[in-house]
């Protein structure tokens, strides 16, 4: 099969279709009808090496597991009901060819799976032993890469922002895996199968002094068989940890081997004698075999035997957390975002500013298309640096400005080659030769480098700042200090919820902490104030006034600013008048009965004020309801859940009117950034309102059903961080690449009026821009590929994440993942059994992370999630950096009962699965937006007393933290340490996370379990094990 084709891929996330199984929903509350299916011989039936032609008889298997009873409920390739011991076996199951679709069996309404002991390791039926990759032992033949097609993949080292990698083209390679701590003694191998074997993996040998892939004039010999690309066999198994022994061998059980690098599952050889898997399907002209006797109970597949994100994270911390990361070393991959490390800039950009999806790039576009690996960079221009790395070096070239290439306008960097004694330099991006200005000339040493190389940051650092001249400023003049304008909704809902009083009270102190050039200087930012409902109220707070003055604009169809002098003022000069205004606003509107609001004229008012002052700035809009009043930008309630899951669903996530898109363009032209704080009680059309924020580099914050008493802390912490964080205005970013690749697509919160310039009315330290690259020519293996990002700000296009129905997006992602892994299997891995799942070492976590994305609220929301919440999450994800997107899709779960109060280290995180939870445990889960503290019902009394100050589990009040910042402040080391951890986690994220205490079996536990992403969820999302099985099936179909 041509791997570039896009065949139909069976998706575990698609809605029920003819021929596919449907997901039974786990029961919470009253039972409901579920679709029941007859057995399909477990998961192994998906991976048989082939099906016979119709009518060809097959002998019964030598040994096999009996079927699950017909009463057991299965989701699409899910485990279904699990019980202890073998079920009764009325008849031998039937199975189809691998490629045959599933057909539903008889419906048994009113039945659901029974879940026993939800917090212990679940048991399983005998049928599912075979079903869960029964032959999928973590072993198999060792790869003989000398005879493989490894040499087809030419790897190109990439520099200046791209750090080279040494693995499969297109992915950063994690550290070499250590022997898995999750070992159990494997049972004896079944007859006809190779004996179990573990693998001690070592890094491949490299040529002395060689860094990164070989150059064009060097031979690329195949790595030895011990290379950790995928599994090897015949090696001694790793020792069990802590002396823990596995279960005794079971008759007929195929052994599960310790985790190794990439190979998951030596499947059973082709079994014959299977008929159709479900009632109603054809039997290929043969009679079903007689019932088989049930063998003894067998052990379920241990989830610890499949790749663990936690293990990879801990390996990376151990291997890369102790030494500084040197950016100039060719072939070195940066540490993971979960690792604390120090960066030493020696020529390539710090990974804090640029991270790439691939550190090896295919030489040709054909190879890139075949591999299907996306080539992209996530750029965070104003990333916050840790104290030990200090601020970036500032370069001032005087009136002439920075040194650049004459042709492509690339800026001076360590990869520019000086020639002719230093009088000229050759551009590393376009190879053009440019004369060196006389004032910049310097002699070269015997190696061809300038003698002042280490005295000039631009000649030896991958990241630096330069002082822009007036030529880089808008209209060729230096910018004015920016302005902050606060626009407060004073309609009935906003006043009643306490929002107006909270905002006004906070601003009186927050205005003392506006951004400034240095700590000793007073902020140069000017401020202005507007309140609104159906009309707008402007306030004159000039320092010479005794009291503030209000001016009302009731004609909102043609918005204008009624005053110029006194609207935008310095906080220091007008402090008394501003405080008086903020005291009076809640009193003025305390008895309002106006419920309708406008929104478009509010943005117009702030924009016109900035135009009148001839400056850039930011609008802080505090809004509470759908703008239904007669005015430009009026909206209607279009929330229609009937469209969810249909082809028309995408219309719900497109702006309702074009007014706000046009308004956003005007804001970008002026350098007007818009931040929106929403406080809705019902539908407000986040999709439409957020267009202005997403196009101007702004942010959207949402606080549903806001109440001052319970939501005050979350809102105020977000507001403080938003006002105080480093910010640039009226910025333009351009990404330049060397010959052979080009930037084609851009994602994030910005506007683009052409195909090259990313225009940002505002750019803060949390914002990222993702850039996708494609080939336009063949790359050179000698020089590699270079990328340079430049952001010019005047002072110190929004692309939607999804433009198709979510079902189509899920199918495309599953398809591309299968294409990537199938391509690796076909071109890089040594020949092996088709029943063996082989994953490249650098991509062994791709299935688990993809599954987390597919079942997230972005792509597969729960029924309770509103359209506004979905739109909010979409715009939030579009500009997340790598660290926040990682924890958003795979939350961090910390077992606090293992906390060492004497040390500073956190306990090792756990995998996100319910079976990992202990009834006697205390767990903290965070995903960047939410914090949960899960309390087991059997928690020890001393731990209970130290954390909650109570004597029993029943006395814990889940709402205790609703009115406070944190847990009860108790005088003991454990309480103090837990509160420190919570505050530390909050400080790492861009949004303040409200803590929710979840008691075991409490109503909030349903919400908590949704973030245990390795389990099957209530919306139909597959478990990690099930999805891995599904991916194996798709890979085999592609390769067949």
Automatic annotation (TrEMBL):
Compositionally biased spans, kind Polar residues: 33-47, 74-85
Listed Pro residues bias regions: 87-96, 236-251
Alphabetical GO biological process terms: COPII-coated vesicle cargo loading; intracellular protein transport
Keyword hit for Glycoprotein: no
Domain of life where this protein originates: Eukaryota
Membrane topology value: Peripheral membrane protein
Domain Sec23/Sec24 helical: 797-885
Annotated Low complexity bias: 19-31, 48-73, 185-204
Localization per record: Cytoplasm, Cytosol; Cytoplasmic vesicle, COPII-coated vesicle membrane; Endoplasmic reticulum membrane
The protein's name in its UniProt record: SEC24 homolog C, COPII coat complex component
